[in-house]
Amino acid sequence: MTDLSRRSTVGLGLAAGAAALSSRRARAQTPSEVKIAMLVPLSGPWARQGILEQMGARLAIEDINAAGGIKSMGGARMKLIEYDTQDSSEKAKDAAQRMVAQEPDLVGGFGCWLSSFTLAATEVTERVSLPWLTLSYSDAITGRGFKHVFQSSPTADKQADELLPMIVELAGRARSGWKPTKFAYIGDNTASSVSFMKSIRGPAAAALGLTLVADEVYTPPLSDATTMIQHIRSTKPDFLGFQSTNVPDDKLLVDKFAEFNLKSDKLPKIGGGGHWAVPELLNVAGAENLEGILVALANWPGKRQADLEKRFMAKTGEPWFGHDSIFAYVHVMILKEALERTGVADRVKVSEAIHALDMTDGPALFFPDGTLKYDEKGRRVGAKLCVVQWRKGKPVPVYPPSIATSEVIWPKI
Amino acid sequence: MDLEVLIENVLNALAAGITIGCIYGLMCIGLGLIFGIMKIVNFAQGELLMLGMFSSLYLVTGGGILAFMGPYIGPFVGALLAGPIVFAGGCLLHKFLIARVSGLRTAGSLDEGHFGQLIVTLGISLILQNGGLILFGSSPMTVRTPLASSAIEVGPIYGDATVFLNKARMISCAIAIIVAVSLYLVLEYTRMGKALRAAADNPTAATYMGIDTDKVYRLAFGLGCGITAIAGGLMATYLSFGPFVGLDYVIIMYSGVVLGGMGSILGAFWGGLTVGFVQQCSALILPPQLQNAAIFVVFLLIVLLRPQGLFGRSAERA
Fold first, then answer.
1. Where are the beta strands (DSSP E) in chain B?
2. CB < 8 Å to A282, chain B
3. What is the CATH number of domain A33-154+302-366?
4. Helix, strand or coil for residue A247?
5. Which partner for A332 in A6, A10, A60, B282 could form a disulfide, CB atoms 3.0-4.6 Å apart?
6. Residue ranges per domain, chain A?
7. Residue-wise over B110-132: b if at least 16 C-beta within 10 A, else e?
8. Which candidate from A189, A280, A289 shows the least CB-CB separation from B140?
9. In this predicted model, what pLDDT tens digit does every residue of A253-264 receive, in sequence order?
10. Which residues, in sequence order, are bridge partners of residue A185?
11. What distance in Å separates residue B314's CA from the closest CA in chain A?
């Protein structure tokens, strides 16, 4: 072999080695799939809510991959890794620890539905800088100075501040200027309800000229509500708010009001939280007793999502696309948007990209206000309550106008 | 508060207390047979209540066996039929598991089998809860009847004061009383009842008298399971439930049995009735969130003042 050919051979070898190295680096930067996590209750008393989130998330993953994956990453496919919080905060935290240990290449995630589970799990995700999106309501979730937690719902305190003015506005709109003056509340003594009721009992009611004439607080689960409903009946309020936190209690309350001849045509009612608009409440309480009940919640698909709702219903067999499923869908879409912007599977960069989002299109359209921006605490700017009303066995969006498909009906008593 | 409202509040609370109390009473009789008479610490009693609820649900809706009876009669027939189904399950449970940690096998042992019973029944409870989750799912269920949300209105009694008697609970209450009285008569006046009481009092002496104590214990355990299941079926007509519902009622059952007097079937019924009554009527003077705390205040008072139970005598048997 001549000197020239030896030099050529060495050069070729070095070039091949460099090419191989750069190709390996390129592969590391643009993996063929990107993993995100879903940590929700898939067993235990809250499993149904987790399953509704799972359905929404799986549909989003299918939609993303069918549309060509993450384009800025060479069409990398998104993969959903599912973990079960089970039935307690301790188990939720254990599951989060297992999740971050077993899946070191996760770039983000969402969950855990129940605020107490989210509070526990985000202590783990924050330590490993994993961006975490949640629909949970508690103010504490984004009140601890965490950098990688993003709360898409209005917080519990904000919901409480918004609720009474919104009810007065809806009543006035439906009954041409009429203004309620007396209201009653019935709710349990769990952490979120206590926090919510603190604001309701505060000066907000007085500022609106409202008097709280009955304030019934019980310890769940409810075995009977006769004495509380009887007390509410005797105070003759203009409307009633529910701050229960589970379907069995909702059913018992709704049945009891019907028994006392106080269905929504006699006493307007507004429930708070996603559990007031789930199919299983319809199964246990029946369309007749739910008719007219208003439900205030953090998100609901409106007329903009009509096609998506049809696809969801056809795929899952669910009677509608609701609060829990749309949140899971939009959270996957937000993570996808952040990945498109960073172009790398790096969780810190994904977190920075979510902080930098300021959108009025794409995933923003899955929120009633049509905006997507998180503040420095991780709370979604502009997050507002929306309202659905039970009509003939189906929740119909009635507020805000951006999602409403019908006007609110307020009984003329 | 004006007199009219006060009268209405008190009468409605009394009506709710009595109707719910009678159903609790039946629930407590089931445990009274197992815990009060056989002295078996059964942590799975709440799950037997849950099995009664699901048995009734599937009889009425799942298999459609009772669908022809409609939503007014079917749910109550379903509740009654849940009894024999869970009775059979209880007998099998006793034969293969409970018998090994109770009865003659443990008579005279230091702990009388209580440690074994505790572990075995706790294990059964966990298996039934999680098995229920796999089989029935986590969505709340109910045995739908229009009677659950309608009432017989009595009055106006004084001014506009009206008493609302929930129809589903009234029927459930009547069935609970009939089942409780029938069981009392069977235990008091039949040969089987006497054999059961004899085996409970002194298993060794009963064996010498020719009583097959194993068989009698199995029967008693099955009866305890079946009676609680009937109560579960009745509750399923107005409550929604899931695989974990038993946890909410097991404490009420134990307090009812101890309150009424250990070893007395009638006492267990009265104990359950008292629990329901206190739970409802306490809300007249205390915040409703203290309803369950009120039960335990009364419970502790009775244990302090009358340790043998409210309606029992220390040596009384049913």
1. 151-158, 161-166
2. none
3. 3.40.50.2300
4. helix
5. A60
6. 33-154+302-366, 157-297+386-399
7. eeebbebbbebbeebbeebbeeb
8. A280
9. 999 999 999 999
10. A215, A241
11. 32
- ipTM higher than the 0.90 cut: no
Residues of B in Cβ contact (< 8 Å) with A223:
20, 239, 248, 279, 291
B141 vs A47, A219, A284: nearest CB? A284
Where do the structural domains in chain B lie, given as residue ranges? 3-305
Residue pointed to by tokens 């979730």: A141
* Distance, CA of A187 to CA of A214 (rounded, Å): 11
Domain A33-154+302-366 matches domain A157-297+386-399 at the CATH topology level: yes
Residues A227, A278: Cα–Cα separation, whole Å:
27
At residue B312 the predicted structure's pLDDT band, cuts being 50, 70 and 90, is: low
Residue A70 buriedness (CB in 10 A; 0-12 / 13-18 / 19+): buried
Report chain B residues whose CB lies below 8 A from the CB of A247: 140, 240
Q: Which residue matches tokens 């409780």? A: B180
Contact map slice: B 118-137 vs A, CB within 8 A: 133, 137
Q: What is the DSSP letter of A155?
A: P
Q: How far is A247 from chain B (nearest CA, A)?
A: 7
Nearest of A201, A101, A111 to residue A160 by alpha carbon: A201
Contact flag B140-A44 (C-beta cutoff 8 Å): no
For residue range B113-146, list pLDDT tens digits in order.
788 889 999 999 999 998 998 898 878 899 999 9
